């Protein structure tokens, strides 16, 4: 099992009102939590929790501190400025569904160039003489010389068939 960003000890955030934990579990079991997003850099969990009886959806946000403990939580429900079961539901859902592998990989991020100016190949290695194709007729002489040279090798030369008479 992957290690967790959301620790079970975070449930202590609701220790004053244990009934909220029970109602939060019920919301998770009923599938009322969705749209959960975890921002690993900011350590913020955001999600939507559907109201149990009404056709309403509440937006919940939980901020974690650097030790991954609950620092602050908000909900758009009438009780959400204090503490509510929607927060508990999101926290319980995140505990079971958010792991360290859900954080964006840092090795895939492109690094910024370390120099201000990029050199061209000509600047780095000097300008090369322009390529000039062979002009005029091709004689048999260079081919015969190459064939004789390759013929002295004991091993087979791959392109030797191109040089046969």
Give a structural overview.
Strand 1 (33-39) and strand 2 form a beta hairpin. 25% of the residues lie in helices and 17% in strands. A four-stranded antiparallel beta sheet has the order 1-2-3-4, covered by helices on one side. The chain has helices at 18-29, 85-97, 121-125, 141-151; strands spanning 33-39, 44-50, 57-64, 70-75. The chain is α+β, with helices and mostly antiparallel strands and 165 residues long. It is built from four helices and four strands; from the N terminus they run αββββααα. The mean pLDDT is 78. The chain is rod-shaped and about 100 Å long. It folds into two domains: 8-102, no CATH class; 135-165, no CATH class. InterPro entries: Znf_SWIM. Residues 58-95 form the SWIM-type domain.
Brief sketch in words of this structure:
The protein has about 160 residues and is α+β, with helices and mostly antiparallel strands.
Count, helices:
4
Radius of gyration: 35 Å
Name the beta content range.
15-25%
| The number of domains | 2
Task: Tell me, rounded to a whole number, the average pLDDT.
Answer: 78
Largest sheet composition = 4 strands, antiparallel
Major sheet strand order: 1-2-3-4
* Global outline: rod-shaped
DSSP E strands, number: 4
Structural class: alpha+beta
> Cα distance, first to last residue?
70 Å
What is the helix/strand order? HEEEEHHH
Uncertain runs: none
Work out the helicity level. Answer: 10-25%
């Amino acid at each position: 099992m992957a290690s967790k960003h959301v620790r079970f000890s975070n449930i202590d955030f609701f220790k004053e009102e244990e009934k909220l934990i029970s109602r939060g579990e019920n919301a998770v079991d009923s599938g009322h939590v969705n749209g959960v997003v975890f921002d690993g850099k900011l350590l913020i969990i955001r999600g939507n929790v559907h109201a149990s009886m009404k056709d309403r959806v509440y937006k919940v946000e939980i901020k974690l501190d650097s030790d991954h403990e609950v620092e602050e939580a908000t909900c758009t429900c009438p009780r959400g400025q204090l503490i509510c079961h929607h927060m508990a539901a999101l926290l319980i859902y995140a505990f079971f569904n958010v792991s360290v592998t859900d954080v964006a990989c840092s090795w895939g991020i492109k690094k910024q160039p370390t120099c201000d100016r990029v050199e061209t190949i000509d600047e780095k290695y000097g300008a090369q003489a322009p390529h000039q194709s062979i002009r005029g007729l091709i004689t048999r002489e260079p081919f015969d010389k190459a064939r004789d040279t390759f013929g002295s090798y004991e091993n087979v030369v791959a392109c030797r068939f191109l040089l046969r008479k």
